[in-house]
């Protein structure tokens, strides 16, 4: 080996860079550049960082729920030793908000490197949501799945976990999920979902397993149009042809559904082929034409612009001789769809072409899209509109110019100026909730006068963001917005353990000597949320405070169990274990009174 290293030292810098370029950047950064001092001197500046995350897939499905946001997956080769050396200590985590910390946990869960998962779990400072289990399932890491679900109190969410395992071809993980009964309701429903997910991803082995070994006698077969749409959205052209040959899709609505999937996921020539079959019927209505164009405009394929051009031409030709009351898709509709999907290239093209559309309306519409109902369980990935928001605000998107123009236009029309203006405080609030970094929050506050809501920042912010906000508001400003109990409760409800610890360290949380406060907080978390999803918060609280058990605390735990059973909530294995231990604690404590 020493001889090989000496030989490398004889190569000129150009050859060394060519060799490095043929290797994965992580291999160069972790080992190759350290071969000898000549190699290090040549490559030091070009390979200073590691790629921890794979480039996320931009493919999503309208018909396969649970796959709208791709999982965060670790890049391979994974720099395990370097990850543990850096992230195995608390300091670097302080700059990351809750979503960023959870994403790093997801990367560690999918790294195939147990020490990295150990380090992340020790320092992430967040409740473990189902996204982490999704990431582990996506790479077939059974041991990590078992640990997260049973030992670490990970939340459970049926469809994303099954989708991750099925869409990546991991029959073993699917079999394990079935063995432990994680169907989230009934076998037929889960089977139907997974079969569609397999069509979307083209995983024939898992598809065969689900159809032959799971749910025999339960039914659960999706409609032919659903399977065809899933395959089309996933770009599975060969499978799409097979499905359509096996069971024809008929009816204008079904043809429109499948054709929209083709417009989204398939190449332009495939779109042209199926449009030739169904276009006359499927695109007869204006709303269907608009839907087709929007699906093409938000497509992850490289030829999305060509598909839009082709569709526009077909639609205009079809409407020759008719009164064109409105274009197939108004620019504002395109812009709003693009912003919601994070399609900055579409916004750039619209702006470069001089298309007039409402930047303010676009911004409002994107930010008003609700977070998923199961936000407590899953969805730690940043809100999709954040790239568009950064473009509009910070990267020359022209929002200030457009806002002034629109305000002037509104004044000419006799409208109130405040109706057309942006509520910048609401923008900051939405951005903070959806995982924004400190730079964007600071820009909104300093450049647009957005007010800081400290309680909401506590729910998802980083320690650095909290330090910044405290510096801006001052202790008196923070206390005027919310009490310490309210702030602490906000951190616990959202699962932001790092923020809760930060509040404790600054005396802004519950008084550890005030048992009444502690007991009221415990009962509120257990019984007043209409959900059992705060069991991890109860457990976290008990690990750090000496709670004196009361009959009211025991009753609150009973209510929490009743809510779970009556509502059919997906209480994970680790949560059930914690619940049993808390019940034993209260029985033992009250018996000693």
Fold and architecture overview:
This protein is mainly α. The protein has 35 helices and no strands. It has helices at 2-8, 13-22, 25-30, 37-43, 80-87, 98-109, 114-123, 130-138, 142-151, 158-167, 171-179, 187-201, 204-213, 224-233, 237-246, 252-265, 268-282, 286-297, 304-318, 331-340, 344-352, 359-367, 386-394, 399-412, 417-420, 424-433, 438-448, 454-460, 463-481, 484-494, 497-505, 515-527, 535-544, 551-567, 573-591. Helix 8 (130-138) packs antiparallel against helix 9 and helix 18 (286-297) runs antiparallel to helix 19 (304-318). The termini are far apart. The model is unreliable at 320-328, 369-382 and 401-420 (pLDDT under 50).
Blueprint of the fold:
Layout: H1 2-8, H2 13-22, H3 25-30, H4 37-43, H5 80-87, H6 98-109, H7 114-123, H8 130-138, H9 142-151, H10 158-167, H11 171-179, H12 187-201, H13 204-213, H14 224-233, H15 237-246, H16 252-265, H17 268-282, H18 286-297, H19 304-318, H20 331-340, H21 344-352, H22 359-367, H23 386-394, H24 399-412, H25 417-420, H26 424-433, H27 438-448, H28 454-460, H29 463-481, H30 484-494, H31 497-505, H32 515-527, H33 535-544, H34 551-567, H35 573-591
Task: Tell me, rounded to a whole number, the average pLDDT.
Answer: 81
Helix content: 55-70%
**Helical stretch tally:** 35
Radius of gyration: 27 Å
- Extended strand count: 0
Q: Nutshell version of this structure?
A:
The protein has 593 residues and is mainly α. It is built from 35 helices and no strands.
């Amino acid at each position: 080996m020493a001889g090989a290293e000496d030989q490398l030292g004889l190569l000129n810098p150009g050859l060394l860079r060519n060799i490095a370029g043929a290797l994965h950047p992580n291999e160069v950064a972790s080992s190759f550049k350290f071969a000898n001092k000549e190699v290090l001197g040549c490559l030091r500046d070009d390979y200073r960082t590691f790629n921890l995350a794979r480039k996320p897939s931009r493919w999503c499905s309208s018909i396969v729920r649970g796959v709208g946001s791709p999982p965060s997956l670790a890049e391979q080769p994974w720099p395990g030793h370097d990850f543990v050396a850096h992230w195995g200590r608390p300091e670097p985590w302080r700059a990351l908000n809750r979503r960023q910390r959870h994403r790093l946990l997801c990367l560690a869960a999918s790294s195939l490197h147990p020490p990295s998962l150990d380090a992340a779990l020790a320092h992430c400072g967040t409740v473990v949501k189902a996204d982490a289990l999704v990431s582990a399932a996506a790479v077939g890491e059974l041991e990590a799945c078992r640990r997260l679900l049973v030992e670490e109190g990970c939340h459970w969410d049926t469809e994303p976990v099954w989708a991750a395992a099925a869409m990546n071809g991991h029959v073993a993980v699917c079999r394990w999920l079935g063995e432990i009964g994680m169907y989230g309701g009934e076998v037929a429903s889960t089977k139907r979902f997974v079969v569609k997910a397999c069509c979307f991803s083209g995983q024939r082995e898992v598809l065969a397993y689900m159809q032959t070994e799971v749910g025999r006698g339960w039914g659960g077969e999706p409609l032919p149009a659903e399977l065809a749409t899933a395959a089309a959205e996933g770009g599975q052209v060969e499978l799409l042809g097979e499905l359509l040959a096996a069971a024809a899709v008929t009816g204008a609505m079904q043809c429109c559904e499948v054709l929209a999937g083709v417009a989204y996921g398939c190449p332009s020539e495939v779109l042209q082929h199926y449009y030739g079959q169904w276009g006359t019927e499927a695109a007869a209505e204006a709303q269907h034409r608009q839907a087709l164009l929007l699906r093409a405009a938000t497509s992850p394929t490289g030829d999305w612009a060509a598909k839009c051009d082709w569709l526009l031409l077909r639609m205009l030709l079809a409407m020759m001789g008719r009164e064109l009351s409105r274009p197939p898709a108004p620019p504002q509709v395109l812009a709003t769809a693009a912003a919601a999907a994070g399609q900055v290239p579409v916004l750039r093209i619209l702006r470069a072409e001089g298309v007039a559309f409402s930047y303010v309306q676009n911004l409002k519409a994107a930010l008003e899209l609700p977070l998923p109902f199961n936000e407590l369980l899953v969805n730690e990935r940043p809100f999709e509109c954040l790239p568009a928001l950064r473009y509009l605000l910070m990267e020359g998107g022209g929002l200030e110019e457009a806002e002034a123009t629109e305000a002037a236009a509104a004044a000419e029309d006799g409208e109130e100026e405040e109706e057309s203006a942006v509520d910048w405080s609401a923008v900051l609030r939405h951005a903070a909730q959806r995982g924004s970094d400190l730079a964007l929050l600071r820009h909104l506050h300093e450049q647009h006068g957005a007010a800081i809501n400290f309680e909401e920042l506590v729910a998802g912010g980083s320690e650095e963001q909290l330090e910044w906000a405290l510096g801006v508001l001052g202790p008196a400003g923070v206390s005027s917005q919310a009490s310490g109990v309210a702030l602490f409760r906000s951190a616990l409800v959202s699962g932001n353990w790092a923020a809760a610890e930060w509040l404790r360290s600054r005396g802004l949380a519950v008084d550890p000597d005030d048992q009444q406060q502690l007991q009221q907080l415990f009962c509120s978390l257990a019984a007043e949320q209409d959900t059992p999803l705060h069991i991890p918060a109860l457990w976290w609280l008990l690990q750090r405070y000496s709670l004196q058990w009361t009959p009211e605390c025991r009753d609150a735990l009973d209510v929490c169990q009743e809510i779970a059973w009556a509502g059919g909530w997906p209480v994970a294995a680790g949560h059930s274990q914690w619940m049993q231990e808390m019940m034993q604690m209260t029985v033992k404590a009250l018996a000693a009174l």
